[in-house]
Amino acid sequence: MSSIVHKIHGLTRDIGFPVRRLLPSAAARTVGPFVFFDHMGPVEFDAGTTEGDVRPHPHIGLATVTYLFSGAMMHRDSLGVVQRITPGAVNWMASGRGIVHSERVPDDIREQKVPVHGLQMWVALPAAVEDGNAEFVHYAADAMPTVEVDGASLHVLVGSAFGVTSPVRPASPTLYVAATAPAGSSLTVPAEVSERAIYVVKGALAIDGEAIEAGTLAILAPGVSAQVSVSSDAVFMLLGGEPMPEPRFVWWNFVSTSKDKIEAAKLAWTARDKSVFPDIPGETEWIPLPAGR
Predict the structure, then answer these.
(1) Within its chain, how far is the Cα of 228 from the centroid?
(2) Residue 265: inside a domain
(3) 0.90 exceeded by the pTM?
(4) What is the CA radius of gyration of the chain?
(5) CA dist 129 to 32, 242, 269, Å?
(6) CA angle in degrees (0–180, nearest 5) for 12-7-238
(7) The domain spanning residue 54 has which CATH number?
(8) Is 183 in contact with 205 (CB distance < 8 Å)?
(9) Bridge pairing between strands 254-256 and 226-241
(10) Are strands 195-207 and 135-139 parallel, antiparallel or unpaired?
């Protein structure tokens, strides 16, 4: 019997470059604390342009997790952090009550036509800390433990899995693992957290005998292990954790337990209230609130 309860294929959106949005969806709005999941690229950007740049924008009530397979992005934020994001590294930015950041394609990536390919997740912050101070922590790729299990190479990005623990310290129980597995390999995914999903980045596999193609997010049933069998060389992600006890409201780049806090964030961003959303040193642009919302 298959442990899959939903298969989500996502919707492709053009935000200046193609992204596949998997969460939120009609079938599942969240998986554990994950409230947002975009698969971006792979895409090449032209030299001398700003294609692919994400101008300064605000967040509240969440932590962003950016993970790249190829290319690079340059992160800047209102804390004054400037950090190049590279493949295999984890960048954990907790917004707390307010942060502003930008992500731009570096000139060398444009000039060398290196495809930018990666995932961006949002993790809801627990109610007790959603109004806390913002922070940004960068973890290099080699800081993440890697373990070989049944032919698969597992890069444990957040949480504990397969006998190892990531140095990333989320605010609530969270699981995030990047797996590379050759054709013919297999892996048992234990039921160590309440909610889990597997996303196939490339290649193809089966979960408990049910075929899953690239670009599919498979939501797993709670409380049971799942058997992954790889039919062609694959890269896939395991994500999940414990869900938030309270519902979350999501509007544009804001996540909160309270609609009133989201309304206040809208007003603060429109008014450019620097006590809530400080400027990013060296940045002069900004993205206004979406029209008509």
Answers:
(1) 22
(2) no
(3) yes
(4) 19
(5) 17, 16, 21
(6) 90
(7) 2.60.120.10
(8) no
(9) unpaired
(10) unpaired
Answer for the pair 211, 203: CB distance below 8 angstroms, yes or no.
no
Residue 134 belongs to a domain:
yes
The Cα 197–Cα 278 span in angstroms is 36
**Both tokens of residue 272?**
């450019």
Q: How far apart are CA 285 and CA 237, in angstroms?
A: 34
Domain that includes residue 175, residue range: 4-241
Question: Which residues, other chains included, contact 38 with Cβ-Cβ below 8 Å and sequence gap of 6+?
Answer: 19, 20, 21, 22, 119, 120, 121
- pLDDT of 11-57, one tens digit each? 888 877 789 999 999 999 999 999 999 999 999 999 999 999 999 99
Number of domains in the chain: 1
In the three-class reduction of DSSP (H, G, I as helix; E, B as strand; rest coil), residue 266 is classed as helix
Quick: pLDDT tens for 272-281: 999 999 999 9
Contacts of 106 (CB under 8 A, 6+ apart): 72, 73, 74, 84
Residue 175 bridge partners (DSSP): 240
As a residue count, the chain comes to 293
Decide if 39 is inside a domain.
yes
Spatial separation of the C-alpha atoms in residues 292 and 152, rounded to whole Å: 47
Q: Report yes or no on 68 lying in a domain.
A: yes
Residues 135, 96: Cα–Cα separation, whole Å: 8
- Beta-strand pair 116-124/99-104: unpaired
- Which amino acid type is present at position 291? A
Strand stretches in 247-290, DSSP E: 249-251, 254-256
Q: Is the pLDDT of residue 293 over 70?
A: no
By the 8 A CB rule, do 7 and 217 touch? yes
